[in-house]
Amino acid sequence: MKFIRTHDHIYLTENRYKKPKEMFKFIEKKAFKKKEGYKKKLICDFGCAAGEFLYYLEKKRPSNEYYGTDIRLDLLKKAKKFLPTVKFLKKSVLKKESFPQKIFHKSFLCGVHPIFDEFEKCFSNLIYWTKNAGEIFIFDMFNQYPIDVLIKYRNSKDYNKKKNYESGWNNFSRKSVSIFLKKQRRVKNFSFHKFEMPFDLKRQKDPVRSWTIKSKNKRLMINGLNIIQPQTLLIIRLRK
Ligand SMILES: C[S@@+](CC[C@H](N)C(=O)[O-])C[C@H]1O[C@@H](n2cnc3c(N)ncnc32)[C@H](O)[C@@H]1O
User: Which of 71, 89, 137 is the best mutation target for the ligand 1 pocket, counting ligand atoms within 8 Å of the beta carbon and taking the most?
Assistant: First the structure.
């Protein structure tokens, strides 16, 4: 089945620079110690869109050297306007040759891997590009049940146009990811950290945007695909 990915145009009009997403705050807290030391670190956000997460990181941790990659030039051009000192590069996280081996201290991949029908390629590449004793942070859905779920969707307004289905909401299981990571020679350890929105989000006009519902006093994320999103941060630590 052929599929497309058009939904990322939202990052051209949305501006989450001054009001960062809650998940950005959660990831930053887990990824950095309060006092990290003054040594400059090379940090890359893969699939950075318009650079909103990098903007947050640069303000919080200005002493590091930041890189951002994406496959959409329009998003990278917008990002560069907000972050003139960051190096933005049009490179795919699926292509090993995008970067040399072991160059980043910390590598981030947020909201990207559920686009792909296999997680292995991009996770292997992140391990390849990250330095010894470096860390990788992957944020999105990870199924807590041992089932890998591949999802394709289409808005009914496109039904008569016979548009291709879209991707972006695959839900790989923690179990499969763990089996894969345990086989990676350079991986020292890894851990999964559940994210919960600290406040309610209202439903928006675009049915693909997520909102919160309450269940047993827990705030769950959902959208028009009608699946509960187990939003999780995966931290991978590499050997020295
Ligand atoms: C859902 S957005 C997430 C954006 C941002 N990381 C965030 O968390 O707000 C997914 C991004 O991944 C980018 N992307 C899709 N395929 C990619 C690939 N093969 N390599 C790098 N980026 C990719 C898209 O262009 C888009 O900007």
Answer: 71
SS (H, E, C) 12-30: HHCCCCCCCCHHHHHHHHH
Q: What span, in angstroms and rounded, lies between the C-alpha atoms of 222 and 208?
A: 9
Instruction: Please give the distance of CA 42 from its chain centroid, rounded to a whole number.
Output: 18
Query: Quick one: which of 3, 34, 37, 24 has its CA closest to 166?
Result: 3
- Express each pLDDT in 59-105 by its tens digit: 999 999 999 999 999 999 999 999 999 999 999 999 999 999 999 99
CA 187 to chain centre: 19
CA 69–ligand 1 middle distance (angstroms)? 8
CA 112 / ligand 1 centre spacing (Å): 5
Q: Which residue ranges form the domains of the chain, and what is each CATH number? A: 3-200+233-238 (3.40.50.150)
- Cβ of 106 closer than 6 Å to ligand 1, yes or no, is no
Q: What is the pLDDT of residue 117?
A: 97
For the cut 90, the answer to whether the pLDDT of residue 184 exceeds it is: yes
Contact, 188 vs 127, CB < 8 A? no
> 3-state DSSP call for residue 142?
coil
* Residue 49: partners with Cβ closer than 8 Å, 6 or more residues away: 8, 11, 70, 72, 75, 79
How far is 191 from 232, CA to CA, in rounded Å? 10
As a whole number, mean pLDDT of residues 32-47 equals 88
